[in-house]
Amino acid sequence: MIAIQGLQKAFREPVLRGIDLTVPKGCLYGLIGPGAAGKSVLLKHVVGLMRPDKGKIFVDGHDLLQMSELELQGFRKRFGIAFQNNALFDHLSVGENIAFPLRRLHKDMTEQEIQDRVDERLRAVALPGMQDRSPPSLSGGQKRRVGVARATVARPPILIYDEPAAGLDPVSSQKIFDLLKKEKGDATVIMVSSDLDRLLTVTDRVGMMLDGKIIFDGTTEQAQNSNNEYVRQFVHGLTEGPL
Is the entire prediction scored with pTM above 0.85? Predict the structure, then answer.
């Protein structure tokens, strides 16, 4: 579904240093690594929000770098994105936040169809009847759930989650990861998270970034049993090692 070849990007200093990565269709892919490794920058390239200095990005066989900005805007209908800080609109209700992608990208839907889809998503994330609540009145976990509902409301084939459980307690965090796995369906998912204990309970494959490069790519089991000293230290939380 996603193929990245030789991706390079620099902001004064290099951030991505030749990324090669393939994410199979239907895979739940976990992207791990220390802070400032380039994970979020890579995600922005995948959805076409950034252009690389060098390299290629193919999504479902389409070359993103050959698209105009107008073509990219239409192509982004294929993505559902939940940002690290939730990025909810405080001036809109919960229901209006969730409906936002449908109103913007699916103008052929009737108002009743939109409301039915919003209601269904709120039930799916265990927040029924909260359409009229304002985002500032929600707990951290509830905001995360609204973010998931908004990311999945248009039923996109590709889902991108950047630190979906950041700042949550372990119980709430596990509930979010369980929810993400349940709501995945047939979608291809890339998920960045520092919560390794819970991330590895839901992933099919894992990639580790370090200093702008992919230093490991394999199944979740291979990551847990890797002999790579960087991967071992990161996955198993070792305090001594090269990182």
Answer: yes
